[in-house]
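S., here's the first fold you wanted:
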Amino acid sequence: MADDDQFMDSLEDLADFSDSGSDYEATLQPAKRSKRAVTGLKPPKRPKQRAASRVSSSLLPPDSSLQQQRHSRGTSRQASRPVGSVNKPVQDISAEEIYDAVCSGKTAMVTVVDEWLDSYKRNREAGLLVLINFIVRSCGCKAVVTREMFDMMQNAEIISTLTKEFNEDSVNYPLSTPGSQLKHFKAGLFEFARVLVRSCQNSLIYDEYLFPSLLALLTGLSDSQVRAFRHTSTLLAMKLMTRLVEVATIVSVQRQTTQRQYDMKNNNMARYRDTEQLEELQASISELQENEAQVSSMMNALFRGVFVHRYRDRLPEIRAACIEELGIWLKTDPEDFLNDGCLKYLGWTLHDKQSPVRLQCVRALQGLYQEKEFIGRLELFTSRFKERMLSMVLDKDSDVAVEVVNLLLLIQKTEEGLREEECGHIYPLVYASHRGLASAAGLFLCSKLRSVISSENVETDKSVHASFIQILISFYIQSEFHEHGAYLVDSLWSSAGSELRDWETMTALLLQDCGLSYEEEGALIELMMCAIRQAAQATPPVGRSQGKKVLSMKDKKIQEQDRRRITTHFIPQLPQLLAKYSADSSKVSLLLKAPLYFDLEMYSSSPKLEKYLDLLLSQVCSIVEKHTEVTVLEACAHLVNALSSDRYTFSSRAHLAFSQLLDGLTDCFSTYISDLLQGTADDDELYNAASALKRIAALSSGKDVTGWKLFDSCLELLKSRIESGELDKELMVPALKCSAFHLMWAKVNAVNSTPSEAELKHLKREVRSFCRVCQSCLSLNQAETRDQAFELLCDLLLLYSTSAARSEPALQTLVHLPSDSLRSEMAAFLLDYVFSDTDPELNVESEEEVRITLLQRKRNQLAGYCKLVIYGVLDLTAATDVFKHYSKYFKDFGDIIKETVSKTKLISPVQSAKTVCLSLQQLFSEMLTENHSPQDLNEIRVLAKRLAMSFGIDLHRARKPLVALHMDGINFAFRDQPDEEEQHPNVTFLVILSEFSFKLLPQDRAQLAAFLESECPDAALSCPPVRMYRRSLEVRSASRAREHAEEGSDVPSLDTPATKRRRTTPQGSAPSTGNRSWLDNSSIHSSLDTPALTSTAQRQPTKPPTSRKPSAAESDSGSDPTEPEPEPEPESEDEFSAGYQLRKVRPVKPRRRQPSSRQTSSNVDQQDLNSHLTLLSLFEDEDEERAEAENEENAKNDSEPESEYTLRSTHHTSTSILDELFD
């Protein structure tokens, strides 16, 4: 027992190490190496080991016999070799060979481990040295631990020496190598750890030398400031810990089985007892208890020495690895780990600021909640962290949010479950743009709806589907997202596809006379149409598709089957539905979309189905005659276009039906046209004519109406209305549409046929006449007519442009270019009605929907104008009216203007750059004519910065455009204005032009500097704008030094911490005060630029306890702060549930005396910074309650209570300060 106490003391030293000393020193206590520390220990009791193995052989893993065979085989090989052969390097595997085997992944790891075990059994010091060098090599360090270092140095000294020799050129190391190499190396390293432990689990794991020495080294490396050491050793230590947990579980099962055997035999009558067998069993139990104690000690050492510190490491990969392995431990050994003392780490990590760490934490919790026997132990954890998990459904990382929703689904299935208000956090996510998150929320919603149905004891499938659809309708109505039914259907498609494909139940509910309410019928029709679209197209709605997905053969087969089922069911049902809801515009407009998803060829497959075609055509014509709403007429037009397609054999019947409809509408309009032109029509005649013209205009978009000769009548009507000033939008807007569609269909017919020259000239005259009418409409004080005229002008000018006739030389006669007056009118329209902050149709009480509609209309108008520029209808200089509003209206039109800028660069890079410069010149000239203010100049500079970014990163490609831009700008700056008294009034434009200088190459800078000297008068060389522009043309380093010299600016104080500052101190420069303390304290004096390899935060020096007022987190006792005590962990439920209260922590002893300037500073901000740095000094301590308090405080401070679904921030206070100061 004394030996065990000595071993436990060494492990306690391993756990309670201090962080004092050099930042590069391993913080492990420099105890003697294991070979010296265990010299007094008794050798393992081999007879007991054999007894334990004999009694519990049935409990060994499947490959344990193979392991024993390998051990015996290695022993026989060792015995057969002469003693002198162990020193031959040829017979022992080297560290480099092990490393190559791990990296390649092609070598059997069992063979590699067996060869190393053979060498270890021959000479355990040499074998351990090989293993140590393999670990060092795996860290990316090419230094070697020699035998002299191994014999004479402690672990901390070895690590310190390796750190000094870690002078690799690249900051990469094996675990940070991108690509497939990382995958192979990690897999090989993990396999090596697994095979090593399994090969030693019955022998060498208990030799009290190999694993204690290995774990001590890994613990020291895991606290190194070198990221490669810390990352690799932590990952390896966590994998070894996982395998040790498995061994501990096996040994525990063996001990329990042996104990049961002993109890059973001991309970026999005295005469039946086998005393010898009882002694063997007792010896086996004692041996297993010793083994279990040794494994538990090693596990405890790894947990406290590595995990407790590294689960909050600065590197997110290390934190994620720790949490991932913790989840495995909790599932593998719940008796030892599944308690509040270990679960709290998962709860704290839910607040981690890095999404990969949160993701591993949530996945670990999923593994626990999947086990029903663990639910009881998780009740306290669930109640404590449920609020945090609910807030994480809005995590900024969608993958984390998806896993959180899946986790909450598992919690929902427990007895406690979630309350309805808690489920309300998840329901809105079915409308999320991320499809994975929406599908997870849909699965949650589907599970909830089915649980409600199961509580109602519904038996038949039809009844279940009907109940599901009715509950879904209620949810859809209550969610108040009536225009987003497609997103709800897409979210439920994978989890409730059978219910959403039950067309029979849906149509039965709709055709019932007293089944659903009016609102429920509308919701069901919308959901049904969304489901039809989803099944027929097999594509997600807009905004949820991640690129173009190619359907597999299986998906295509399912799509075709669904489409046939839809067609077969709805061909007879659709006329009935249209007849029932023909008077309701909102419902019938949705139902009219159904045939667009049919397999329309089925109409001609049998005479019986042709009857339903006639019924459908009759219903469509009846609906057109009943309605004048735009949505209904547009839906009819789409259906007319689809049914009239020449690829269907029944298209002639559709043509006949719709031609008869157009005949009636044309006759109605012609009846009133003469009265309209004469101005004698009354209100009824005006209404009837406008209604007929609306229907004709709607059908014109889907059917050729040139045969009805309506163009002349519509054009005369427009001219008469404009001349008389009777601007009736109900009549003028459809008249504009009819005329424009006539010209569009005429162009299509001209392309598809061979018209005569006279016909082409007549068509061109019609185009010219219509453009004049539209130009007159642009100045009308009637918004609908004005907007419609502008949009139609953009379309027709593009259709009859030079680029459109390029592929048809015979149609060059039809090319129509806009006149100068029309160009100016369109540009004025853009400035007055698109780039305008004041809209007469908007007021303070306008609904958001109206604002969105108006914005969408403006975007369409701007896009139409930009297309005219891109396709050469308008000159590139016309784009200046667009470019100069890039910055001011970036929120509304930024994407359109950015695309236009990029397209113009493809057309002519130089001319595009000159257009950019011209737009800035126009803004500058406007600024001079108005009241000049610095704010106006700053706005133009902001625009210049944004436009400069459009030149991209390929500076060689942008050379000529940039030089041309600068030359135009210089010429403009020194251009004399005849009516200006001041000489060179435009010289300030050089300030704006300097925003483009950072994109210039050095040779171009010199060329432009010479050009500036030649153009600039001598008197203007000393002007501040000229000096500023000249500095922008100089090389960056020289320009920066000259700027400091001219402006007299001081170098920023080194005492002020800079954001995102590297911790390197270049040679020849003075280090900052914050860095000086740890550099001077370090025991390593090297010129090596170490920060490229470091990652953890350096401890900031703190003031002595007597010089600072103690805070709530510091101890007010009189104990010596230089002798830290281990902080007890809360192991009871009371301590855990009491809740993250701040423990009293004694201040850390300062490493070095602070400079006097720091001690005497009374600045409030500096005191606040020092208080945060004190937190940093405690960041690596084993004060887990303090870390929990920080997490809780951050979660509360970063949350927004007024937002019900706002995701709380995941930033740690200490870590965020760490990022700003020491990254």
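And the second, which I think is the more interesting of the pair:
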Amino acid sequence: MRTGRKKRFKFSNIYSFKCGKGLFKDDHSQIGGPGFSRVVYCNEPDGLDASLRNYATNYVRTTKYTAATFLPKSLFEQFRRVANFYFLVTGILSFTSLAPYSAVSAIVPLIVVIGATMAKEGIEDWRRKQQDIEVNNRKVKVHEGGGKFKQTEWKNLKVGHIVKVEKDEFFPADLVLLSSSYEDAVCYVETMNLDGETNLKLKQALEVTSSLNEEDIKNFWAVVKCEDPNANLYSFVGSMEFEGQQHPLSPQQLLLRDSKLRNTDHIYGAVIFTGHDTKVIQNSTKPPSKRSKVEKKMDKIVYLLFGVLFLIAFFGSVYFGIVTKDDLDGQRKRWYLRPDDADIFFDPERAPIAAIYHFLTALLLYSYLIPISLYVSIEIVKVLQSIFINQDVLMYYEEADKPAHARTSNLNEELGQVDTILSDKTGTLTCNSMEFIKCSVAGTAYGSGVTEVEKAVAKRKGAPLTENGKDDNERPVDSPKKSSVKGFNFYDERIMNGNWVNEPRSDVIQKFFRLLAICHTAIPDIDENTGKVVYEAESPDEAAFVIAARELGFEFFKRTQKNVYVKELNLVSGKRVERSFELLNVLEFNSSRKRMSVIVRDEEGKLLLLCKGADSVMFERLAKNGREYEEQTREHVNEYADAGLRTLILAYRELNEEEYNVFDEKFSEAKNAVSADREALIDEVTEEIEKDLILLGATAVEDKLQQGVPECIDKLAQAGIKIWVLTGDKMETAINIGVLRQITEGKSQIAKSGSEAFALIIDGKSLAYALHDDIKKLFLELSIGCASVICCRSSPKQKALVTRLVKEGIKKTTLAIGDGANDVGMLQEADIGIGISGVEGMQAVMSSDIAIAQFRFLERLLLVHGHWCYRRISSMICYFFYKNVTFGFTLFLYEAYASFSGQPAYNDWFLSLYNVFFTSLPVIAMGVFDQDFPLLYQEGVQNVLFSWSRIIGWMLNGVASAIIIFFFCVRALNPQAFNNDGKIAEYQILGTTMYTCVVWVVNCQMALAISYFTLIQHIFIWGGIILWYIFLLAYGAMPLKVSTTAYKVFVESLAPTPSFYVVTVFVVISALVPYFVYKAVQMRFFPMYHGMIQWIRYEGRSEDPEYCNMVRQRSIRHNTVGFTARSLARTSPLQDGNKNQR
């Protein structure tokens, strides 16, 4: 740290390609052109030039609505739904004389339903508003002139302001770093809010502004010209004009909004992008807009009911027209309508027009076939289901303090219908927490650790292995089972504890581990608790290499702008000494280069290029005299790959001064180019120097499987789910020629094999051919026939294309799961995207539908929550349509009984409150609390519970219930006397009795359909019935003008009459008998999956493994993935013909 005026210093190339003095020449030509038109006047935010540009303010709004737009936008959203729009039209028509009921009774339920949904939207948006207020009112120090800084809210910042950000504060906007509290103008930044990474990033100011302090700021003035606002977090092209000179700007000088300043007292920065122009806001994405298959089918059912509604309205209107015309005859059966003096609605002389008016009246009357509260009830249920998912402690990862998070509730039931899972490997199936376990140096393999893959293979062969290749009983007493150092699981006495000096090629071993200690971009720090050196590295691999070098005697302990310091053993004196290496250039790793190099000068003045990279690019760069250990190293690398390890090749070369100077000049020109092709120029220059290397050896690190992954995969396989792995990792056996021929041969081989399980492995190059339009269908057919599919070396685009191919090809639900930015396309393409909130950042989570912390939680998410949500939503929707068909058809039957006169069977408010109060709460309770057995997951995959046959079956059940209720009530109550006074059952008595029977029947039907009772369900079901009687008493007690046909009907007519209770009991039992008989026959002779489980429990055979397997195996395929699942499938006593039995 330092205070006062800073001394100037020589700028180094350590931190990035892109740092350094600008050598513009013609390379700045893009600045000012399309996409590069932003001009910022630093320290003059209110100047004339700045005000003319009208840049965005720093106020951020993430809300969907404003106070002015909430009502119109929200109403528009609600009435986009066909059902809601239909009820709006019927509500408007209810104000006309066509309506068979009062306008108020039609409008109030619509207002309640729409109001409830709008209230939900409003509450959610209000929460977002509160978050916005908190962020916008955060404080930051801004330069107000004269070198003085004052506190102001973030929302007041403007482009061009100079701000002072202090330790552990968030950056309020996108800033260009001007200087910091460090002598060399560096600062440490935590970007967890941007990409989820906890490791610190190093940023460094331009040399020309590095000496700025509070006193200098008052006279500071510069013009920044740069790219326009965009979403790319990792690129920035610009220039700064300062003191008459142009200086290139790069991502190294850019501090992004919402990242945090760490390990640095303060920095000064110029505001470049504000508010919605900042990169983090440009990157913010709404949860993907996806709809479940159940919801899409539900829309079709609504359309079907609309069709039924129009059909019966048309039929009734035609019949009404004919009968009305017949009223002209002398018989005059409907004399009470006064056909000789009727209005337009019953005029025999204008029968066709009367029929048309009746058609409109019937559309209003039969609207109760459409459940008005269906959509809002489903939204409520899905939100409650999402809360259950979010608060499930069994999906809470305590180590990282991360619960499951459903970012959208639209796809809850889709989780119960997954047929194929497409998974990333690194960080998703594995921990992405690397451990250095083996290495090959000078053709000799070191490290006796056993990987999980090797253990699993040995276990299958019946010869279990343990650490160091020995059984626990044979292990020496002083042999440690496992290193306690995180990232280091290496054991080999030959090179540990300084014993490497006794090896035949100790000089190569020294160069090997020295390379690991120097060739990286890690930042050393001292752990205050232990006093040991710890490292902030850009990747887990790099951290493992530096830790391994330290544990084996080559400790990287200090980094300055120009030097790297390493403690190592002196071969001559035998003591540990500190060595300094001047760091001249860092040639960084990227996905196209697949390697990283540093150029250093050692204490003897030698120029060394140290390089590490993938075998696919490193072996071809070796010199003829540098291949001494190539054959052995290749052999070891292949062995490591077979054992599931990630490998890197290490090599070096000595440079002469002339060669280096030529390279350095070209490299400086390339890295200071301000143009879109700067990276290509840099790659071209580095290509020339990274050649003629001398091979040292190879490293092998293990990315262990996450806890519970094998068991989770096996459970998912037992549920009949197919698993694909799409990874960018190495595949040992390349399949890169003759793709079409191999696919064709593979299909025929699977066809011949019968029940054998096959795995398909394909690499990225082959995948490019397999995804061609003329081959992809064959590729999909082959893949479907295999137990598992592994796509190696696949690019992010290929992952997305494979996901699309599977989704569109199999026409079943696909789920993609990943944890990195390279998985985003795959997650968005799949029906369901699951993001793992791991160590590769938050891009995957931000693009996902549901986020979980560990792959093993997928088992509970799908087999428990997914299956339950599917069962609940499916049963809920079927029941919703059942109760509305029951109610609607009693209206139709009564109107038919009344010669289609448009007379409703029930009081206006009876009609209105049926869906809203008396029958809706039990359905919501079913959608939230009903349970069955997670073992029955295939019910969802095969869509057993929401098939058209089941939906139509429930509707027919409703029709049957309506017929029984109507005819039994009519025949029981007419024409004899209803009570002791000889009074007959009038219209209001018949209607109320029928309504009472409907409420009892639909609620008791719910009780029969529920699999898992809770206290809440009992309260809602029986409470709904009690609520009806309370309402009947209260509503009947109101004045006649209000209660109309319900005036004291219960107190005076129904309650004192025994026949009312007898009819109710008899009708309810009779209406439930058809369903009960159907379920009894089905349960005995054609049990569904859950029926078989109930039989197991009933017969006390839950402990009989053979009988239980008969049920489980119905959901397992012979070619499924998973050892246990395949074993079960092979031993299945069920015949193929029984597998699809319902």
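Why I say that: The first helix runs from residue 48 to 53. The chain is about 45% helix and 15% strand.

Talk tomorrow,
H.
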